[in-house]
Amino acid sequence: MADAGIIHTEGHVLTLAQPLLLDSGRSLAPVEIAYQTYGRLNAAKDNAILVCHALTGDQHLASPHPKTGKPGWWQRVVGPGLPIDTDRFFVICSNVIGSCMGSSGPSSAAEDGAPFAMRFPVITIRDMVRAQVALIDHLGIDRLHGLVGGSMGGMQVLSWAANWPERFGAALVLASAARHSAQNIAFHEVGRQAIMADPEWKGGDYYSASVDDPRKVGPESGLAVARMAAHITYLSEQGLTEKFGRRLQDREAKTFGFDADFQVESYLRYQGLAFTDRFDANSYLYITRAMDYFDLAEEHGANGKPGSLAEAFAGLKARMCLVSFDTDWLYPTSESRRIAYAVNAAGAPVSFVELSAPFGHDSFLLDVPALDRVIAGFL
To answer: CA-to-CA distance for 343 and 337, rounded, in angstroms?
Structure first.
């Protein structure tokens, strides 16, 4: 057991020995998977929990981010004595393929040594999970104690449940959905077009000759706008009104110009610019596309016909818990309820709760004591 208040953390990169076969019919090679572990794996290897991150997250869920120095994105949840208790559990979090924090993605070196750029194959949520399965196999873990994920991380958990149901004992899905709606696809397309309209995108070939070159390059303006647009969808109107209202930013009166007169404008601009310091624009294109392609029922159809969501969970025996938030309009409660009905129809044990929080979709990342109790109690 770790010393009180001290989390045992290790970072690793796994290189797969074989190419990774993808849903598109293509294969990806070389494949590297960057991951962090917290706590210690017991002798029976039955105390492991895999946490799946969201669109702009990464493997640094409970340790400082190496680029920004900021605390891990779920540091309030993962650690000794916390809801995901690292004195009890061995917690794994891997950077999804397609991303830019050490796992193979568009900015990674291809077999010819140059960055993949747009030569990187289009991936799916299930492809991300295939890489995670390879990682769990590498760690010698036959069956995870549990899976936890919010937003896109929840999509990965659902893909595990549909495709590898025998590999875990419990699945916790937070603020997620079994398919991307037309509205969500539309928001993502606005972001992608902002990136591709930036002259610095250059058809995706904006990287320097060396993947190790630390210079900032690429469509930073387009990526910032994409982040601004997406960030709005993560918040609730109530939260924005309470935090900013129509208050002006460091001024007594409107300027009658196009500077950031309002606090909410200044906040969004800051969020957009800060994002460019830690994320790759091409990765944003690939990961949002993977989310848009996600439709769990469609994946489990036959003879060219879409299947039902209950059919997707036909092999599931593990416990599942779904959590939604009353102010989340990106992945509303109706989406979680739909999944709960399908899991129940498939005969698997499932529980569902809608929590009240003012933070919108981002509620699963923020201080919601009721969520902490659900996580600790379910796991």
So the answer is: 10
Q: Which two tokens stand for residue 149?
A: 């994920």
Burial of residue 191, with CB atoms counted within 10 A of its CB: 0-12 exposed, 13-18 middle, 19 or more buried: buried
% helix / strand / coil in the chain, to the nearest 5?
Answer: 35, 15, 45
Q: Does 209 have pLDDT greater than 80? A: no
- Element spanning 212, H or E: none
Average pLDDT over residues 224-232: 94
- Residues with a catalytic annotation lie at 151, 328, 361
Rg of the chain, C-alpha, whole Å: 21
Alpha-carbon distances of 315 from 157, 335, 347, 352, rounded to whole Å: 15, 21, 9, 20
What pLDDT shows up at residue 215?
47
* Cα distance between residue 30 and residue 54, in whole Å: 23
What pLDDT shows up at residue 214? 46
Task: Report helix, strand or coil for 14.
Answer: strand
Angle at 208 between CA 206 and CA 210, to 5 degrees: 140
What domains sit in the chain, N to C, each tagged with a CATH number?
Answer: 9-180+295-378 (3.40.50.1820), 184-289 (1.10.1740.110)
Sign of the Cα pseudo-torsion (320, 326, 328, 333, in order): positive
Comparing CA positions, the residue from 115, 135, 132, 136 lying closest to residue 123 is: 132
Compute the average pLDDT of residues 67-87: 95
Going by pLDDT thresholds of 50, 70 and 90, the confidence category of residue 6 is low
Residue 178 has pLDDT above 90, yes or no: yes
Q: Both tokens of residue 370?
A: 């009721």
Distances in Å between the Cα of 259 and the Cα atoms of 229, 230, 248, 275, 367 are 18, 21, 11, 20, 32
Band the pLDDT of 1: cuts 50, 70, 90: very low
The closest of 105, 35, 16 to 290, measured between CA atoms, is 105
In this model, does residue 5 exceed pLDDT 80?
no
Tokens coding 47: 């105390």
pLDDT at 7: 60
